[in-house]
Amino acid sequence: MRIARFSIDGNVAFGVVEGEGTAPDGLVLDIIKGIPFAEFERSGTKVPLDKVRLLPPVLPSKVVAIGRNYAEHAAELGHEVPDVPFAFFKPSTSVVGPGDRIPYPSFTAELHHEAELAVVIGRMCREVPRERAHEVILGYTCANDLTARDVQRAEKQWARAKGFDGACPIGPWVETAIDLAQAGDLAITCEVNGELRQAGRTGQMIHGIADLIVNVTEAMTLLPGDVILTGTPAGVGPLDPGDEVAVSIEGIGTLTNKVIKRG
To answer: Where is each Rv2993c-like N-terminal domain found (predicted)?
Structure first.
């Protein structure tokens, strides 16, 4: 099931996406009663997807991102592969949705795209055993871990380089029908203006999804709607104002955003 969050006529709601494919034409939203983190019912009230504005599918209290989780990506930036997951945070204010414009940050001259599989947490959890990791996952969505690469190199911590407003596009919806095993081997790509930049599979991850959940929840409580970014395959590269960047993940969909000149 694909669950989207959207606005229409000034109202915000969740809905189940119905129809085949990922193009808005022909897809409809069946508005749900309740929220996707608990039992809910479909209302039967349906609206065409192309008549609404899709929002970030969740509003996380925190985004826990994993760096250097693909060996070829670590190598292309001259980094060592970590023995344990290398985590950092992106603030909730960095999160934007599909179709949102990304103002090019004023403090960088080297904005990079990073296509990632995002794990959406479905219930409050802490110290999750590996064999129960699947129980805390609501589903999966696409993400773009936008990075001010020159700032990342210059500063010892990554708060500004990866935490600026708009640095975490996610969407277009949460796919709940993919199980943990399937999520561990999905094709993931990034295109800029129709040119293929990144192409990999989630099976290339050094630390798998269950291991990431174990590692993160050893240290902190995750809340419904929190997001874990699982790392990016090789091929990251620069974006310029006017560029359209599209992250696609097999079985989920495509997240598209346009970079614009700030101000």
So the answer is: 1-57
